[in-house]
TrEMBL record:
Leader peptide range in chain numbering: 1-26
InterPro entries: BURP (IPR044816), BURP_dom (IPR004873)
Protein keywords: Signal
Keyword Manganese included in the entry's annotation: no
Keyword Coiled coil in annotation: no
Protein name (database record): BURP domain-containing protein
Domain BURP: 135-341
Length: 348
């Protein structure tokens, strides 16, 4: 190719690029929801957007805050999703239709020693996962053990709001009418019901030895966990995978100490996480190989002392045991687990 030809091509390229930028900027300025393309590798359907409520002069949160507090910890994939620029600014209305099984499992995890007396939960949990392993006992997993596992994800992706905006929106049971008004949601809608349930969960009293916090922004999520576990941490999540039979391929590996913060993504119009630090907890990594050859490193949490849990807890029903022994469970791929790093000396 001659030099002239190359230059012409290059020029054409830049012209096209600037045209593209001009178009997108114009679309942004007049507030048109333009089509966004998900990062190909992530392959996640973008949520339907509703009109934005956000001031246009406040920029979206980025991974900068993460690296300013946690310079040595890679940003977990589960959070990278929520920071995809294509998602901002958007408020998501599909949060209430979230993948039922994921939402139900999440709630099952959260109702640790509280009784999950919602019969619907049990029913949908059973029908969604008739033959899947969620709960297991401490010594159940050894290399060669086979089980069916479904690594769910919530199905909808929402974005973090800038902290400033998130903190200006009320987040408490007595302010639900205001919240509904803010998002233009009907009082009797399914969305309203979900919002009430989720906020209610945040306001329930802590269990013994538990500390919890509902983080309404990326910054508050990071602050909570850094205050509890310091800056020398690993943050893990399980990669989503299809439901199939998996075989434990190597020994289960304990990660960190008997201290962990677990943050579950909530069903909410923007990214809110229910984080808790639970005493007597062990985080394990379980290496699995699927029937189709897929390798998954599943993150699991073991509650080492369940003697104070309700005998009606789903875990005991599934395992057919009484409260007391260590109970472990798999985590869905939207859940973040923070553990102190113990392999390296603390950096000063
Ligand atoms: C629910 O999650 C599973 C596993 O991630 C996925 O295969 C399925 O399509 C989801 N369903 C909906 C309705 O999003
Ligand atoms: C387990 O928890 C119960 C009640 O919270 C407590 O009485 C007991 O001492 C604990 N057991 C161990 C081994 O820590």
């Amino acid at each position: 190719m001659s030099l002239a030809n190359s230059c012409a091509l290059l020029l054409l390229f830049f012209l096209t690029l600037s045209l593209f930028i001009t178009c997108s900027t114009a679309a942004n300025t007049i507030g048109v929801t333009h089509t966004t393309v998900a990062v190909a590798a992530d392959n996640v359907p973008l949520p339907k957007k509703v009109a934005t409520f956000l001031p246009s002069d406040i920029s979206p949160p980025t991974e900068k805050y993460w690296y300013s507090r946690l310079p040595n910890t890679p940003l977990p994939k589960a959070l990278r999703y929520l920071l995809q620029p294509g998602h901002y600014p958007s408020i998501n209305r599909e949060f209430a239709n979230e993948n039922v099984s994921a939402a139900v499992i999440l709630r099952a995890y959260r109702t640790t020693y509280r009784i999950s007396n919602k019969r619907d939960d049990k029913k949908s949990l059973n029908s969604a996962l008739p033959d899947s392993t969620i709960f297991y006992q401490y010594d159940d997993l050894h290399p060669g053990k086979k089980m069916k596992v479904l690594f769910t994800e919530s199905g909808t992706k929402v974005s973090f709001l800038p902290r400033q905006v998130a903190e200006s929106i009320p987040f408490s049971s007595d302010k639900v009418p205001e919240i509904l008004k803010y998002f233009k949601l009907e009082v009797n809608s399914k969305e309203a019901q979900v919002i009430r349930e989720e906020i209610g969960g945040c306001e329930e009293p802590n269990m013994e030895g538990e500390e919890k916090y509902c983080a309404t922004s990326l910054e508050s999520l990071i602050d909570f966990s850094v205050e509890r576990l310091g800056q020398n941490v690993r943050v893990l999540s399980t990669e989503a995978g299809k439901k199939q039979e998996y075989t434990v391929s190597a020994a289960v590996r304990m990660i960190g100490d008997h201290k962990a913060a677990v943050c579950h993504k909530m069903r909410y119009p923007y990214a809110v996480h229910y984080c808790h630090v639970i005493a007597d907890t062990e985080v394990d990594e379980v290496p699995l190989v699927g029937a189709d050859g897929t390798k998954v490193k599943a993150v699991t949490v073991c509650h080492l002392n369940t003697s104070a849990w309700s005998p009606d807890h789903m875990a005991f029903q599934v395992l057919k045991i009484k409260p007391g022994p260590a109970v472990c469970h798999f985590l869905d791929s939207d859940t973040l687990v923070w553990v102190p790093k113990k392999d390296k000396k603390m950096t000063p």
